[in-house]
Specification:
Layout: H1 2-6, H2 9-39, E1 47-51, E2 56-66, E3 79-84, H3 88-91, E4 95-99, E5 103-107, E6 113-117, E7 122-132, E8 135-138, H4 141-188, H5 196-230, E9 233-238, E10 244-248, E11 252-256, H6 263-279, E12 282-283, E13 288-289, H7 292-323, H8 328-340, H9 345-368, H10 383-407, H11 411-419, H12 424-451, H13 456-461, H14 488-497, H15 502-542
Antiparallel strand pairs: 1-2, 1-5, 2-3, 3-4, 6-7, 6-11, 7-8, 7-9, 9-10, 12-13
């Protein structure tokens, strides 16, 4: 036995077992997120339940569990099922528990419809009639279903026209009006309005504003005409309890018959839902629809953070390793940098709020955007300050990784460069830093992995529940660093803990979590590929 313990085999098995358990835990967590994140996109069958008390229930069966009150040895175990009944505007809830002992009959009706709406969630029911301009054009399912599909395509095109007009021409005019308003206010602040040249310029600005208002009125009239067209089609549905509901066709995002489509039809619906989730905008207090603004905000935040943290962290590490005289103070700085990596992220958020937003941003507003005050421009949370705050949060990781990369460069390479009459700077720039690039990218990978999931500092420095516009658009200067933005991590927090209907929002929480993990993995894979290419290049260059 002593020989067995001294051989070290038990320790090998212990470490191997710990690794296996860790991998199993990670795999189980990913499987849970993957299952719950993707299941909301799959169109499940609609089941109609006839209860013993005469009531009926129509919906998707989501879960089945044992009833705790009957979980005893003396009684036969009973179960209940959780049914997603939808029709929130009729029932004021999305799910209902039904005891299996109360079910008299269950089946999947062929003509049951699922309507995904822009408001009030899904509607489950049966086709009643379809009217257009007040005239009934179909009063049976056989006639109405093909006609509904055609009308939905027309309304989708109308929705795109409205969205393009609102986010395109009207936004551009509003931006121009606001810019002219600020310019006009800047001209009149503390100026002599009796000056002829100034008065002429003011009159010219007002004329341009008037021209933009005329254009705005024309676009607004066009928009009102489009919205009137959206009122023309109305679909009347019958719920399982017999109540009728009039739904504007314009408000229907998607309509399908889950009990009458095959696997490929379900896959097509699922693909459409996933595409909407990735590319669409949120609705219903972020609990439905897409997460594209949050996805875009997360990616651009990480990119800007990387642009800020790499020069800062690399230069600091180069000074500490290559130029600073090693001693007590340099060692104290290294200890401080290592300790900064353990500071809670909310502390960085408070620092970013006080220093970047109130101090730096407030000063910028006083000197360069005084005409907009008291409304702050940079003196409030925004993309720039959030990126810099995350850069400070992750800079210790980059410094430590860069120092390790610089220390790993063989001394012989440095001495060979110096022996060939290269200066210390030339050796550093042409030999040492290229050789240390894999280590630098390792630090960047670790920084991306941490920054992409941070939420606490962003809540103080610029992230919002719903951003009216993306930080990047077609209006000069194109990248608007002062704008607030959405973030996948905060989106998860908001939907999971701040939603008025948490039970219905749980699938969105899992889906957004899955998307955030995918984004982090893709960013890391991209950085790892670059690092591996550099390593191969350096390995070949040695020979």
């Amino acid at each position: 036995m002593k020989k067995f313990w001294k051989s070290g085999d038990p320790f090998v098995w212990l470490t191997g077992g710990a690794l296996a358990i860790s991998l199993l835990m990670i795999a189980a967590l990913m499987a849970l997120i993957l299952y719950n994140g993707l299941r909301q996109f799959w169109p499940y069958d609609l089941t109609e339940l006839h209860l013993k008390d005469g009531n009926k229930v129509l919906g998707e069966i989501w879960d089945r569990e044992r009833i705790p009150e009957t979980d005893t040895d003396s009684k036969q175990a009973q179960y209940r099922i959780r049914v997603k009944i939808g029709n929130r505007d009729l029932y004021s809830l999305d799910f209902r528990w039904v005891d299996e002992s109360e079910i008299e009959r269950r089946f999947e009706p062929e003509h049951a419809l699922v309507l995904e709406r822009s408001e009030w969630g899904n509607f489950y029911g049966y086709f009643k009639k379809l009217t257009f301009d007040g005239t009934t054009i179909a009063d049976s399912f056989a006639e109405g279903w093909p006609e509904l599909q055609r009308r939905l395509d027309d309304m989708a095109a109308l929705h795109n026209d409205i969205h393009s007009l609102e986010k395109g021409a009207i936004d551009e005019i509003n931006s121009g009006l606001e810019k002219l308003r600020l310019q006009l206010r800047k001209l009149t602040m503390g100026s002599d309005t009796t000056d002829v040249a100034l008065a002429l310029e003011i009159a010219q600005q007002r004329a341009e504003m008037q021209s933009l208002r005329v254009r705005y009125d024309a676009r607004e009239a066009e928009l009102s005409s489009l919205y009137r067209q959206s009122e023309r089609g109305v679909l009347t549905m019958t719920a399982i309890d017999g109540r009728e509901k009039d739904i504007k066709v314009f408000d229907i995002v998607r309509a399908f018959r889950p009990n009458d489509i095959d696997f490929w039809g379900r896959s097509a619906v699922c693909a459409g839902k996933i595409w909407e989730f990735v590319s669409g905008e949120p609705r219903e207090s972020n609990t439905e629809g897409g997460v594209f603004p949050a996805l875009f905000g997360t990616v651009i935040l990480v990119v800007m953070m990387s642009i800020a943290v790499v020069p800062l962290g690399v230069l600091a590490a180069i000074y500490l390793r290559e130029y600073a005289k090693q001693g007590f103070w340099v060692q104290a700085i290294r200890i401080a940098v290592n300790n900064l990596a353990g500071v809670p992220s909310i502390v960085y958020g408070v620092f970013g709020l006080g220093f970047f937003i109130y101090a730096v941003g407030g000063t910028i507003d006083q000197f360069f955007f005084s005409e907009a005050l008291p409304t702050p421009t940079f003196g409030t949370g925004g993309l720039l300050w959030a990126s810099l705050t995350l850069a400070l949060l992750t800079v210790p990781v980059v410094i430590v990784a860069t120092e390790e990369g610089l220390a790993a460069v063989p001394r012989e390479i440095r001495e060979g460069s110096l022996a060939l009459s290269a200066t210390k700077f030339e050796t550093l720039w042409r030999v040492v830093i290229p050789s240390a690039l894999p280590g630098i990218l390792t630090g960047l990978i670790l920084a991306i992995a941490r920054a992409a999931g941070e939420v606490a500092p962003l809540m103080l420095t610029g992230v919002v529940k719903l951003a009216p516009a993306l930080p990047l658009d077609g209006t000069f200067p194109f990248l608007h660093l002062e704008r607030k933005f959405m973030h996948l991590g905060f989106h998860i927090y908001d939907v999971g803990f701040q939603s008025p209907n948490v039970e219905a929002a749980i699938p969105m929480v899992y889906s957004t979590t899955l998307l955030l993990i995918i984004i982090v993995v893709l960013l890391n894979v991209f950085a790892i590929q670059i690092r591996n290419r550099l390593r191969k290049k350096l390995a070949f260059s040695v020979f």
